[in-house]
Specification:
alpha+beta; Arc Repressor Mutant, subunit A; three-stranded antiparallel sheet; 9 strands; globular
């Protein structure tokens, strides 16, 4: 039987919660993201995933105090926007995610971007898979180039407070589908702090080229394998919470990884319910 202690010991290394493994510099943060493949920026309640915050500050709640030493991650993130050292955007669960540049093409291969970046969004909108807000924002960025949030709101006629939800939903939707990403910070707006957004295909043209060689099934298997290398063992519901793929697609991916020997299935974990899967070395 797999024990919770064994899982916790494994994650103490991959999550860097061990004091001697903590991330202490910006370069170490980049190395950490590359080693894991992808991590969340902040920990998310109920979601089993490593995060940059935990790797720096340990397993504790994210405090509101701005002078907390763990918030050094915020400065690292901002200083690296647009620098092509990692990929940052609202991806997994539409929350802030850091992704290794070697891994981004696998995510992109699962997006709705199949043809020309100038045409795909129109097809999605007409098919009902893209909101009007996302279409407006993307159209402006395509035409005008990089733009900060307040300017983008003006250009899309979403400056009214009542439009806050629509604007935020649109830009998150576009990040989640790898159409736009933040590439810098501008000292504008009420807080003198606003992201500058740009189209992914212009900022990272290499991602599109690399993704064309990756099949959907291959992409799913690669991402789930990387996930298990970070968490060691989880039940089926935990892995589906992270990727939010259709249940049948996740089952097919897991089955293929079990068949190849990448994962072990049918494990019992002390005091836990559900079917658990694990890396072979952790399952013993």
């Amino acid at each position: 039987m797999l024990t919770l202690d064994a899982i916790a010991t494994y994650r103490a290394e991959t999550y860097r919660t061990r004091q001697d493994l903590r991330v202490e510099t910006k370069e170490e943060a980049i190395e950490y993201v590359n080693a894991r493949g992808f991590v969340m920026f902040w920990p998310i309640k109920g979601v089993v995933m490593p995060s940059l915050w935990v790797a720096v500050a340990g397993s504790r709640l994210v405090p509101n105090e701005h002078d907390d030493p763990g918030h050094v991650t915020w400065g690292w993130k901002d200083s690296l926007l647009g620098r092509r050292r990692w990929y940052y955007g609202k991806v997994l669960r539409k929350r802030a995610t850091m992704i290794s540049l070697d891994v981004v093409p696998y995510f992109y291969a699962l997006s709705e971007n199949f043809g020309s970046p100038e045409d795909d969004y129109l097809h999605q909108y007409h098919d009902g898979t893209m909101t009007a807000e996302a279409k407006q924002i993307y159209k402006v960025l395509l035409r005008e180039g990089p733009m900060n949030s307040p300017a983008l709101r003006r250009a899309t006629s979403m400056t009214d407070k009542k439009a806050n939800y629509r604007f935020n939903r649109g830009r998150t939707e576009l990040q989640n589908d790898f159409k736009v990403l933040p590439v810098g910070v501008a000292e504008v707006g009420s807080w003198n702090y606003a992201f500058i957004y740009e189209c992914v295909h212009r900022h990272h043209p290499e991602i599109l080229e690399q993704a064309t060689e990756i099949k959907i099934g291959e992409a799913r298997r690669e991402l789930v394998t990387l996930y298990f290398r970070s968490v060691g063992a989880v039940n089926f519901s935990d892995v589906t919470k992270v990727f939010q793929w259709p249940k049948r697609e996740m089952e097919r991916t897991i089955d293929a990884l079990v068949e190849s020997g990448t994962l072990v299935s049918g494990l019992e974990v002390e005091g836990q319910k559900g079917m658990w899967f694990s890396l072979p070395e952790l399952a013993g």
